[in-house]
Specification:
It contains seven helices and no strands. By secondary structure, the chain is mostly helical. It has one domain: Methane Monooxygenase Hydroxylase, Chain G, domain 1 (Up-down Bundle), CATH 1.20.58.
Length: 229
């Protein structure tokens, strides 16, 4: 009987991990598609992102129900309890990533037909790639219980911040040089911020993974060394 109960509990924990992985794949896909819709002026793709975001919301609710049921029925302690709590917190961060991607998609629709400067779109693709790489890495860390990988994501948060600041300055420069681009530039500033915030959520998940594996909180993020400073 005890062995059966333990197997059922392990199965519940594995189900939580699977749901987090599925939620992560959806958030990654939304982020990539929303940016591509913006860069390529593809409002149809943007509208699909908006419509599909409800899938993320539904899955988050399902994960919450699984976690609450596990805590209520199994009454986990120590590391197992941290596992359940980590799944809940990670799901919330991933759901916010989906919301931010949806917001980007809405702005892509608003910019339909606007002539996009190629260098600026290239910069958006670069920031998007950097953010998605971090999100993918931290999801792998979560799935593989990889503390080193999680801490690596956490320690390099400023890479996204620096890329975001650079892109923001480029957008502001466009708005200053071309008054007709002010409205579009305002939309683009929001998109850049959305990507930067997704990077922040990846960092949050890295902190969650660290706590789940060690029982210790990360409190002070180290700054990246910069040559010449």
């Amino acid at each position: 009987m005890v062995e059966h109960t333990l197997r059922a509990f392990d199965s519940d924990l594995a189900a939580l991990k699977d749901q987090v992985a599925t939620l992560g794949r959806l958030a990654l896909s939304e982020t990539e598609d929303a940016t591509r819709a913006l860069v390529t002026d593809n409002p149809e793709l943007a509208r699909r992102v908006i419509d599909q975001d409800r899938n993320v919301d539904v899955l988050e609710v399902s994960l919450q129900e699984t976690a609450v049921r596990l805590v209520a029925l199994r009454q986990p302690v120590a590391e197992d309890l941290r596992h359940a709590v980590a799944a809940l917190k990670t799901a919330a961060d991933l759901e916010r990533c989906g919301d931010l991607a949806k917001n980007t998609a809405k702005r892509a629709v608003a910019l339909e037909g606007w002539r996009r400067p190629a260098p600026l779109m290239s910069a958006f693709e670069s920031l998007d790639g950097l953010v998605r790489k971090r999100l993918q890495m931290v999801l792998q860390a979560y799935a593989e219980d990889d503390l080193i990988k999680a801490d690596d994501v956490w320690s390099k948060d400023e890479e996204v911040d620096a890329a975001y600041e650079k892109l923001s300055q480029e957008i502001i420069g466009l708005m200053m040089s071309d008054p007709q681009a002010v409205s579009a530039g305002s939309q683009l500033l929001f998109v850049a911020k959305n990507l930067e915030r997704i990077g922040d959520h990846a960092t949050n998940v890295a902190e969650i993974v660290h706590y789940r594996l060690t029982g210790e909180q990360l409190t002070a993020r180290p700054k990246i060394e910069t040559a010449g400073i």
